[in-house]
Write a structure and sequence with these properties.
The protein is an alpha+beta fold. It contains 19 helices and 40 strands.
Length: 709
């Protein structure tokens, strides 16, 4: 029997390192292992990564050469910043006259607080002329004398004129220190924010370089020939060399791995992903098949780091119940883990004998209102997981599943204190905990204008069953727990796509400049191993900030999933009808390609024009895009330029807010080309032509347009 090629995802957490093997063709989970994270080993976390890989290959019967893709996510950069375990940064400011005034102010970054009482270690030196090699050498000598372990060069307007920063680095190269230029970290204007982002990146650079080298050498020694990839904070992966240049991209990559799993395994197109652990729940958003990202706040300041928009609530599966007399007042933020107590529902019935409710302070300074059980077997915490099991919300085989009878026995003493029955007491516990989560979910739905008719709640993490099912019931939204929820993060790492984002400030950007940014993003992911024919690039042009942004994604190999997993016509029609909230008989097939089918219906409104809701469904029966009112037209590659020019011309609106071209998406082959971020008709049509380039003249093209008001 042939051993399948596998995709390996490894998630390095603070306590454990989880690894999974996924069939590269069917995407079926083949194996999973958990090992302690090796913080204190001489090889650091690299040792745990290799140990997890060895166990995984043994479990699945795979050889190192069977690994088609290998990626890992790590909390190392995040922890380094949180704990203040960073290198001393030597910052070289460049400039004369007024420019020197601005760059000298950058020395204030030494006041940035990493951890309580611990500031960012920074030494500053100034160079007036970047081409004065002797002056640069003196500056480097000064910084080394002050303990600098890594160098950053920064000059005003280096985004447009990078030669000065590069000249400083060239002159400093003989000293052998890791170094970077501010313009190489981000191409956005704003000297202060750009340099701060580069300085924070540099602070973790030496440590991350050492880990990268150890992991790379260890994986190569193990016989794995697939290139090693690293999880980014925006839900994609990057090549190891790219991580060596910009390790800051791994900050906050833990939550990004989970939502990547929801996006790729669960095929969520619109909704919220809730990753629930023992103490907290991370909430993120998928909108129109893409994760929601924004500029991250690091060390209390905004940065130019594009990261997952994740919001954390201090409620998890182990969160303890708080009471006052005969009522539940709150749940958390303290958990059984913090209090050092076992969950009551995982005790035996005999251990729970003669249980009495008491209240405690989990930590000094906490209020003494956290409920515990003092029983024959010792002291136990009453948790969200206990309540979920008591109500039968935890499915068979789930990581947090226990005997429901034992869970009810754990809740019974508390129910007696509250003067109610077990089911009501358990519901009150979940109500109190989930209410905090619901507040954040509702805010994110508003912020991202999610379509509540189609948005779903997907729970991941070991504590998913304690939050997501009850939230779905109380909110009326569709909800489910992800398959293999306890390892959804390493699954996300294994399935993530190569991603790169390029941003440029280009006032009055021309078609050629927009296309150049797009091409740069596409080249970047191809250079990191993405198959060129599968790369998708989303371009956004923001006329208010003059920002041109291109986000490119692609797979390191073109995966052809097992055809037996494909949905048939009936299944796809039902998926569209369910999303449209109508009977399948009222749904019409509008268009299609080999990979996608477009369905629509019509809604009539009194005194207003009829709306034409549209859904795009892929071969797996997953709704990849939904539009409240859209126009759909089919053409060919040869006829598309003329047809698109006509459609865009007819659908462009003009008003006090300026010109607004329609939101355009093209279905081409296996791809959906999303051009909805461009408001100007001419660049929009230029981008459309670039998508059609090098395709057969008779290949079908489906255009889906949404008119903007």
């Amino acid at each position: 029997m042939n051993t399948p090629r596998i995709r390996v995802g490894i998630d390095v957490g603070g306590t454990f390192t989880d690894a999974v093997a996924v069939d590269a063709t069917t995407l079926e989970l083949l194996g999973q292992v958990k090992v302690p994270t090796s913080h204190h080993h001489e090889d650091g976390v690299a040792h745990g990564i290799v140990e997890a890989l060895d166990r995984l290959l043994e479990q699945t019967g795979s050889a190192p050469t069977d690994v088609a893709f290998l990626a890992h996510g790590t909390t190392q950069a995040t922890n380094a910043l949180l704990e203040g375990d960073v290198a001393t940064v030597g910052l070289i400011g460049i400039g004369t006259g007024p420019s020197a005034v601005f760059t000298r102010r950058l020395a204030s970054f030494g006041k940035l607080e990493l951890a309580p009482g611990k500031r960012l270690p920074l030494a500053y030196a100034h160079v007036a002329d970047p081409d004065d090699a002797a002056a640069v050498r003196r500056a480097v000598e000064q910084l080394k004398g002050e303990g600098a372990q890594v160098l950053v060069a920064s000059q005003p307007f280096s985004v447009d004129r990078p030669e000065g920063e590069q000249a400083v680095l060239d002159a400093a190269r003989p000293y052998g220190l890791p170094m970077t230029a501010a313009h190489a970290i981000t191409s956005l204007y704003g000297l202060h924010k750009r340099t701060r982002t580069a300085v924070v990146n540099a602070a973790i650079l030496p440590r991350m370089l050492a880990t990268a080298d150890l992991v790379d050498a260890s994986i190569t020694k193990a016989g794995v020939t697939a290139p090693l990839m690293v999880m980014r904070c925006d839900g994609g992966v990057m090549a190891l060399d790219e991580m060596r240049r910009r390790p800051l991209l791994t900050v906050l990559s833990g939550p990004a791995a989970g939502v990547a799993g929801a996006l790729m395994q669960e095929r969520v197109s619109e909704g919220a992903f809730l990753e629930t652990g023992g103490t907290s729940t991370d909430i993120s958003v998928v909108r129109r098949g893409k994760v929601a990202v924004r500029h991250a706040t690091i060390l209390g300041k905004t940065s130019y780091l594009n990261a997952l928009d994740v919001r954390t609530v201090g409620v998890g599966g182990g969160s303890m119940v708080r009471i006052d007399a005969d009522r539940v007042t709150a749940v958390g933020p303290r958990s059984a883990h913090i209090a050092g107590l076992p969950y009551a529902c995982f005790a035996t019935r005999d251990q729970l004998r003669d249980a009495k409710v008491a209240t405690v302070r989990p930590m000094d300074g906490d209020p003494a209102d956290y409920a515990v059980l003092d029983a024959a077997g010792g002291r136990f915490a009453v948790t969200m997981t206990c309540a979920a099991n008591a109500l039968g919300r935890v499915p068979e085989g789930d990581f947090a599943r226990c005997d429901p009878q034992t869970a009810r026995a754990a809740i019974a003493p508390l129910a007696a204190v509250l003067g109610t029955d077990v089911a009501t007491a358990a519901a009150r516990i979940l109500d109190a905990g989930v209410a905090q989560v619901k507040t954040v979910v509702d805010a994110m739905i508003r912020d991202y204008r999610l379509d509540k008719d189609t948005a779903v709640l997907v729970g991941g993490g070991g504590g998913a069953a304690s939050v997501t099912p009850h939230l779905a019931r109380t909110s009326g939204m569709e909800g489910r727990i992800a398959r293999h929820n306890e390892v959804i993060s390493p699954i996300g790492v294994a399935l993530a796509l190569v991603r790169e984002q390029v941003e440029r400030i280009v006032p009055g950007a021309s078609q050629e400049q927009i296309l150049a940014v797009r091409a740069e993003a596409e080249r970047a992911v191809v250079a990191q191993g993405a198959a060129a024919e599968g790369v998708e690039v989303e371009v956004t042009v923001d006329p208010q900030t003059s920002t041109v942004r291109a986000v490119a994604t692609g797979a390191t190999e073109l995966r052809t999933q097992d055809r037996s997993h494909r949905a048939d016509d009936t299944e796809r029609l039902r998926a569209a009808a369910a999303s449209l909230r109508t009977d399948p008989a009222d749904v019409h097939l509008l268009a299609g390609t080999a990979a996608h089918t477009v369905y629509g219906t019509q809604t009539h409104r009194r005194l207003r024009a009829a709306r034409r809701p549209v859904r795009i469904v892929d071969m797996d029966g997953v709704v990849r895009h939904h539009a409240a009112d859209a126009r759909v037209e089919t053409t060919t590659v040869a006829g598309a330029p003329e047809v698109l020019a006509r459609l865009v011309g007819e659908s462009t609106s003009y008003g006090d807010g300026g010109i607004r071209a329609p939101a355009l998406r093209l279905l081409l082959g296996s791809r959906i080309a999303d051009l909805s971020g461009v408001l100007d008709p001419q660049p929009l049509l230029a981008l459309a032509r670039s998508e059609l380039r090098a395709r057969a003249a008779d290949e079908p093209v489906v255009a889906v347009l949404e008119v903007r008001s």
